[in-house]
Write a structure and sequence with these properties.
Helices cover 32% and strands 24% of the residues. It is α/β, with parallel strands linked by helices and 276 residues long. Strands 5-8-7-6-9 form a five-stranded mixed beta barrel. Helix 3 links the parallel strand 6 and strand 7. Helix 1 crosses helix 2, helix 2 packs across helix 5 and helix 3 crosses helix 6. 45% of the residues are buried. The structure holds hypoxanthine.
């Protein structure tokens, strides 16, 4: 029996296929201020989220809200320029719907990116990090609710959400491109308020290296579907709880734009060398 979710996934995927006859293999999610990667895609078609049935549309400045399909470094990709977050009022299931549609379109690998606060005192705003593991501190999970066994298991394994082969590839590409790449654990909070100093101390005590408001739901949904995942974080501010300056969204976007050329260079190299 076809589940309601499966039906909506297929409906959305079919709407995209009708607009753009193209089969992507790599799904890319572009985080806050990192949308310029899409400029390097040899575009076959662009579909605004608003024109895809059941797709959530973003309400945050810096998140354009369109799907860019085409070739990046010779690989067929579908890049999400903009994503939605729990703090906008969407459910975790709504947040991950686009990932499921990209899977329905043919993507079996996910490269997800985000902007986040750095928890390590030795790190600097502007650093890049490859995600080795995550902590779901959002108090919800996109898999809550009925499970469609044809999509994935009721109780999916989450012992290695980030593909070690892809982490290693990212680190090798960083060396070749002479880009400093940190590695670490990403913790997701709901937001939208930034963390208090006490919360940051707690998160650091958890063993997290970066804190942000996205990515974890998408990764859980992707792993549920059996997709391989690579996660990259742009450290846009130092969330040590000791900064003289409070964090602002404007500062997050400014630093993201500043590091964007380095991020683009690294991602292009990774995609070029990635086996799909
Ligand atoms: N905290 C949470 N989310 C973020 C931050 C932060 O410091 N920076 C960018 N996204």
């Amino acid at each position: 029996m076809t589940s309601e979710l499966r039906r909506r996934m297929e409906e959305a995927a079919e709407a995209v296929r009708r607009r753009v006859a193209f089969e992507p293999k790599l799904a890319i999610v572009l985080g806050s201020g990192l949308g310029a990667l899409a400029d390097h895609i040899e575009t076959v078609g662009v579909v605004p989220y608003a024109e895809i049935p059941h797709f959530p549309t973003s309400t945050v400045p810096g998140h354009a809200g369109r799907l860019v399909l085409g070739w990046l470094e010779g690989k067929p990709v579908a890049a999400m320029q903009g994503r939605v977050h729990l703090y906008e009022g969407y459910t975790a299931q709504e947040v991950v719907f686009p990932i499921r549609v990209l899977f329905a379109l043919g993507c079996r690998t996910l490269l997800v990116s985000n902007a986040a606060g750095g928890l390590n005192r030795e790190w600097r705003a502007g650093d890049l990090m490859v995600i080795t593991d995550h902590i779901n501190f959002q108090g919800t999970n996109p898999l809550v609710g009925p499970n469609d066994d044809s999509l994935g298991p009721r109780f999916p394994d989450m012992s290695r959400p980030y593909d070690p082969v892809l982490v290693e590839l990212a680190e090798r590409c960083a060396v070749e491109e002479r880009v400093v790449l940190r590695r670490g654990v990403y913790v997701a909070v709901v937001g939208p308020s930034y963390e208090t100093a006490a919360e940051l101390r707690m998160l650091r005590g958890f063993g997290a290296n970066a804190v942000g408001m996205s990515t974890v739901p998408e990764v859980i949904a992707a792993r549920h579907l059996g997709m391989r995942v690579l996660g990259l974080t742009a450290i846009t501010d130092m969330a040590t709880g000791e900064a003289a300056q409070p964090v602002t969204h404007e500062e997050v976007l400014r630093v993201a734009r500043e590091l964007e050329p380095r991020f683009v260079r690294l991602v292009r190299r990774i995609v070029r060398e990635m086996e799909l």
